[in-house]
């Protein structure tokens, strides 16, 4: 609960701060647009005022005409403000409002007037109390030159702070929220309480320093003016060397979060008390259960040791069985081979038909027994893991032709046809293991086919080849298809005695060899119509 609650509170705090940052970003963008529009409109009016002042200086218009044109321009101001024309000495020579001191006001000591006299064209000056009207304003001024480019005065527009007070009151920044704009010379506007920040410098402040490196951003820090820690978003105006700021008090932003912290701590205290009580009861129950569990664990250990012992005995027995089968199959093959040779010699010397028939049956029995021992030897070798595939690339057709030649005598003796479909395919496999695998499939097909024939060929499947053995034999019943590759599985032929030459290991050997080669097996069958066994091998030339 503690970790979960801590994670929740951290996430909630971050979300709260992010929401406040989004709010200040929106206000800063709005302040940027408003101030840019105000300065742009005022700049156009000042250009026109400069033209009027120049015309009056050269006598092209009269005093009354100048005042009329100034009145029209003042009516076009986007915000409340006043416009004045100042001569080369700094005296106000034209204004639409009377001076509060009752006489022309001299503004030659203003820094912006001095800058214009030295050649500056346009200046946005920090906020001051206007000498002419005693209102709190910031000044936008422009140099006036005669037709020869000589300095003859200044035209200025004072934008009243009250406009941005109303603008600030329309925002949702909280009681500790602020908006401000500053240039290199100081604060142009600051809300609320702008009168407290006249002639305050912003040089070296964190926000102004950050704005010198990037045009937009958000920082959190304490204000050098009132010490309140705020989330501040700043933007540098595109066309002016002015930075606007919108800030929200961090304490006000996090006030709801702190309320949540208090409520959650109280809930955790109550929950902890309840959990402690439940834990005490649970521990008493656990104490009773531990003795039972200890007995059960001892019994499980005993049963596990017994199972491991039996598994080891089974493994040793299986290994012993495998070694016995391998040894027995190998040792029995020699006398069987000798018996087969004697049967052949005996068959060649006997001419009595009845005796020849008996010797022929003896020879077939020896061959069947030898085949059984070969299957047992293959199974034992595969299970013992003594066979390692030796993969190589070779043409498939010679292998298929050799297999058909080997099986053809038995197929012909049974009255069956056998053949291989010609192919140019080159494959990647172990030729020895693949030959033994396919031989078992062909032998099995011949054994379970009464009429018709057996055919071996391949089908291309992208970058693989499916080698298939088709027969017209008895097929496989649907109930037997799933276990046809299991050991000792044989399909009895209706009306025919069980074949003494097989134990049902042939397809088991095929399954083991295919697994060793990583070649998938396939089987398709129709009961009474025939079967198709296939093995899928990679092509050497997939393109």
Strand content: 15-25%
Number of helices: 10
The average pLDDT value, as a whole number, equals 80
Spatial arrangement of strands, main beta sheet = 2-1-5-4-3
| Alpha-carbon Rg, integer | 53 Å
Unreliable segments of 5+ consecutive residues: 495-501
Major sheet size, sense and barrel closure? 5 strands, antiparallel
Instruction: Note the overall shape.
Output: elongated
End-to-end CA span: 62 Å
Going by helix content, strand content and strand pairing, the class is: alpha+beta
The count of DSSP E runs of length 2 or more, i.e. the number of strands, is: 17
Helix content: 40-55%
H/E series: HHEEHEEEHEEHEEEHHEHEEHEEHEE
Written account of the structure:
The protein has ten helices and 17 strands. The strands form four sheets. Strands 2-1-5-4-3 form a five-stranded antiparallel β-sheet, sandwiched between helices. A five-stranded antiparallel β-sheet has the order 7-6-10-9-8. A five-stranded mixed β-sheet has the order 12-14-15-17-16, covered by helices on one side. Strand 8 (216-222) and strand 9 form a beta hairpin. It starts with a helix and ends in a 5-residue tail after the last strand. It has 543 residues and is of the alpha+beta class.
Short description:
With 543 residues, the chain is an alpha+beta fold. It is built from 10 helices and 17 strands.
């Amino acid at each position: 609960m503690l970790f979960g609650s801590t994670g929740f509170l951290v996430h909630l705090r971050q979300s709260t701060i992010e929401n406040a940052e989004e709010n200040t970003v929106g206000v800063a963008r709005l302040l940027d647009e408003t101030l840019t529009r105000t300065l742009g409109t005022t700049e156009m009016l000042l250009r026109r005022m400069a033209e009027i002042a120049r015309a009056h200086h050269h006598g092209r218009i009269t005093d009354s005409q100048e005042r009329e044109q100034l009145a029209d321009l003042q009516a076009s101001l986007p915000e409340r403000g006043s416009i004045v024309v100042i001569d080369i000495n700094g005296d106000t020579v034209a204004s639409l409002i009377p001076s509060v001191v009752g006489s022309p006001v001299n503004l030659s000591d203003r820094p912006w007037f001095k800058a214009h006299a030295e050649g500056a064209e346009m200046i946005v000056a920090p906020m001051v109390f206007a000498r002419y009207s005693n209102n709190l304003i910031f000044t936008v001024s422009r140099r006036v030159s005669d037709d020869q480019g000589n300095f003859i005065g200044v035209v200025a527009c004072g934008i009243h702070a009250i406009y941005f007070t109303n603008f600030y009151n329309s925002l949702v920044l909280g009681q500790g929220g602020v908006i401000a704009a500053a240039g290199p010379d100081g604060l142009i506007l600051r809300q609320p309480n702008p009168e407290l920040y006249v002639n305050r410098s912003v040089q070296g402040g964190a926000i102004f320093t950050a704005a010198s490196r990037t045009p937009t951003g958000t920082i959190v820090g304490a204000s050098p003016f009132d010490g309140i820690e705020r989330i501040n978003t700043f933007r540098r105006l595109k066309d002016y060397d002015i930075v606007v700021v919108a800030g929200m008090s961090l304490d006000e932003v996090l006030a709801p979060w702190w309320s949540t912290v208090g409520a959650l701590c109280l809930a955790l205290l109550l929950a902890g008390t309840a959990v402690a009580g439940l834990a005490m009861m649970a521990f008493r129950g656990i104490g009773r259960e531990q003795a039972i569990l200890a007995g059960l664990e001892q019994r499980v250990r005993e049963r596990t040791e017994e199972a491991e012992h039996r598994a080891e005995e089974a493994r040793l027995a299986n290994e012993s069985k495998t070694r016995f089968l391998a040894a027995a199959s190998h040792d029995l093959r020699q006398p069987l081979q000798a018996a087969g040779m004697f049967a052949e010699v005996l068959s060649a010397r006997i001419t009595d038909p009845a005796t020849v028939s008996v010797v022929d049956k003896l020879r077939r029995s020896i061959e069947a027994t030898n085949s059984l021992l070969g299957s047992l030897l293959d199974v034992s070798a595969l299970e013992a893991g003594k066979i390692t595939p030796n993969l190589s690339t070779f043409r498939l057709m010679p292998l298929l032709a050799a297999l058909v030649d080997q099986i053809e005598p038995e197929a012909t003796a049974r009255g069956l046809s056998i053949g291989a479909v010609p192919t140019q395919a080159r494959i990647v496999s172990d030729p020895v293991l693949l030959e033994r695998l396919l031989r078992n499939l062909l032998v099995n097909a011949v054994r379970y086919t009464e009429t018709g024939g057996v055919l071996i060929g391949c089908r291309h499947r992208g970058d693989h080849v499916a080698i298939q053995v088709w027969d017209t034999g008895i097929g496989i019943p649907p109930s037997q298809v799933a276990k046809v590759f299991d050991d000792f599985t044989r399909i009895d032929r209706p009306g025919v005695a069980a074949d003494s030459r097989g134990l049902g290991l042939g397809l088991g050997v095929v399954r083991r060899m295919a697994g060793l080669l990583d070649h998938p097996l396939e089987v398709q069958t129709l009961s009474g119509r025939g079967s198709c066994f296939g093995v899928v091998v990679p092509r050497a030339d997939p393109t």
